[in-house]
Amino acid sequence: MKIAIPSTGEKLTAPISNTLGHAPFMIIYDTSSGEYGSFANPGFQMQDGSGLKASEIILEKRADALFTREIGRKSYSVLLKDHVKIHLLTSGGTVKSAINKYLKKQ
């Protein structure tokens, strides 16, 4: 399974971004291999449509799930339509801590 997480940095140790659209990076983590990629979010500096730009990365990289603290209605609709499972996080922390917490539940 591939998990997308909006991040403030390029590494797993980076804090999770408080927003999807204005996150500087999107980290895609593959739970089967433990490998990840970090991708710059072109919507980071945009006023409007930033969430949709972030959603494009998620769909392009074929993520199965999104872990985020916040998501707009348009992005939510686009991702649900393409069967991306959306998990709203109730607290911050690092990308790695969110992944580990999820993996422990599995």
A few lines on this structure:
This protein is an alpha/beta fold. The chain is built from 3 helices and 5 strands; from the N terminus they run E-E-E-H-E-H-E-H. It is globular.
Helices, strands, pairings?
Blueprint: E1 2-7, E2 25-30, E3 36-40, H1 50-60, E4 65-68, H2 73-81, E5 85-88, H3 95-105
Parallel strand pairs: 1-4, 4-5
Antiparallel strand pairs: 1-2, 2-3
3D structure, described in words:
With 106 residues, this protein is α/β, with parallel strands linked by helices. It is built from three helices and five strands. Strands 3-2-1-4-5 form a five-stranded mixed beta sheet, with helices on both faces. Strand 2 and strand 3 form a beta hairpin. Helix 1 runs parallel beside helix 2. The radius of gyration is 12 Å and the shape is globular. The mean pLDDT is 94.
Please give a handful of descriptors for the protein shown.
106 residues; Nucleotidyltransferase, domain 5; five-stranded mixed beta sheet; 5 strands
Helix percentage range: 25-40%
CATH topology: Nucleotidyltransferase, domain 5
CATH architecture group name = 2-Layer Sandwich
Strand residues, percent: 15-25%
Q: State the CATH class.
A: Alpha Beta
Instruction: Round the Cα radius of gyration to an integer and report it.
Output: 12 Å
